[in-house]
């Protein structure tokens, strides 16, 4: 399509009172549109450049670079301050414009798939993997977008962020459609909802997993954080099912925002509930009661939090009419999720070592409560807190770890440009003697590799060692550098050294 056609379609998608004045008379409008971007470095001849107002800079400042690179039109929230022949359109919300323009440019790929959006603080990734497996078991080629990977058919690429910016998001969905996908499961972060990255997507269903403290470096407070999450359910088309966790205190408020709520719970009445849970290191088993009958759940995933993730997936799958056999098969097929209660140790090791992405106080509590009954002896926890992120959760994480662990090693996570010693000090404030369980010990060790090696080397037969915070991540961000670091690989290195030491000893 031409640049002019794209701009007209975009304007027509807005309410009448919000439609911008379309530029006219420029030859640039007649050229073929080659893309939509907010990054002046990605502009090609024929691109539409959308100038976003950011926290540190205004995209309008980069308009000259975009024009020099061949931009065919500029979209911004204020009039042009540069002399140029390039058409300039003023809009009320540039982020909304970016999302709608991207959807138009890529011909609305979400209209050709059943797209399930998953939001919440914890459990998004695992719920996404479960639904992906269920769709595949039901015979649907299914795309996946989330914190770990973007999966387009058989092709996987490491995720750069949970929910990419609108042009990248729509491009991935277009690739899914072109590759034969009839379904897509995507995590929708609070950042993405606040910044309107997912606007322009037609969702077939939504999932609310839970809401606990996180991202208060970005959101003003918990109400602002919840309002962002709730937007997904306000965006759902009429009749689209919304799977909602009623054991979460915010569940009832999400129900009010959804036109077709499908509730699930373990401890309260709901549309989808669990029978008695069987929990072990081998997985979780229970019968899920749904409006369409019983679903027999037998999953290798470990712990009660995964019972909730499974119930969320069952709720969506049944509401979308997927066969019970496919739901059961998809759940049983999923052997694990990278960095989510991932066992680094082998069954022949005398200790159990688990790597997990838990990076909030609530996620850490869930992890420790899952691991505690599985430990024959002590529970040893190695964790840190990320730099340049919500500082309010640091002492809370320290308190949870000290209260539920026998040994705590506080170390670096991704300090980024913060002093790792200061981060550790703030975490350690919550792990003071009065907060610890009887006999628990706490030590600090800045070097994460040394901390993991120490914990595994000092473990006694029957201990469980938890390495929390980074999960699937393959780098550690320190002082502006992304250095190679893999918790699972380091843990396995430490386990091999331990095996040799025990063999020699």
Note down, in words, how this protein is organized.
The chain is of the alpha/beta class and 505 residues long. It has three domains: 103 residues, MurE/MurF, N-terminal domain (Udp-n-acetylmuramoylalanyl-d-glutamate--2,6- Diaminopimelate Ligase, Chain: A, domain 1, 3-Layer(aba) Sandwich); 225 residues, 3-Layer(aba) Sandwich (UDP-N-acetylmuramoyl-L-alanine:D-glutamate ligase), CATH 3.40.1190; 163 residues, Protein-Tyrosine Phosphatase, Chain A (Alpha-Beta Complex), CATH 3.90.190. The protein is built from 15 helices and 24 strands. Strands 5, 6, 7, 8, 9, 10, 11, 12, 13, 14, 15 and 16 form a twelve-stranded mixed β-sheet that branches. The protein has a six-stranded mixed β-sheet with strand order 17-18-22-19-20-21, sandwiched between helices. Strands 1-2-3-4 form a four-stranded parallel β-sheet. It is globular, with a radius of gyration of 24 Å. The mean pLDDT is 94.
Structure keywords:
six-stranded mixed β-sheet, alpha/beta, UDP-N-acetylmuramoyl-L-alanine:D-glutamate ligase, 505 residues, Udp-n-acetylmuramoylalanyl-d-glutamate--2,6- Diaminopimelate Ligase, Chain: A, domain 1, twelve-stranded mixed β-sheet, 15 helices, Protein-Tyrosine Phosphatase, Chain A
Distance between the termini: 72 Å
User: What level of helicity do the residues show?
Assistant: 25-40%
Strand element count: 24
Low-confidence stretches: none
Query: Structural class of the secondary structure composition?
Result: alpha/beta
Q: Rounded to an integer, what's the Rg over CA atoms?
A: 24 Å
CATH architecture of the largest domain: 3-Layer(aba) Sandwich
CATH topology description of the largest domain: UDP-N-acetylmuramoyl-L-alanine:D-glutamate ligase
What's the CATH class of the largest domain, please? Alpha Beta
Q: What's the story with the biggest beta sheet?
A: 12 strands, mixed
CATH superfamily of the largest domain: Mur-like, catalytic domain
Task: Count up the domains.
Answer: 3
What is the global morphology?
Answer: globular
How many DSSP helices?
15
Query: What is the averaged pLDDT score?
Result: 94
In percent, how much strand structure appears in the residues?
Answer: 15-25%
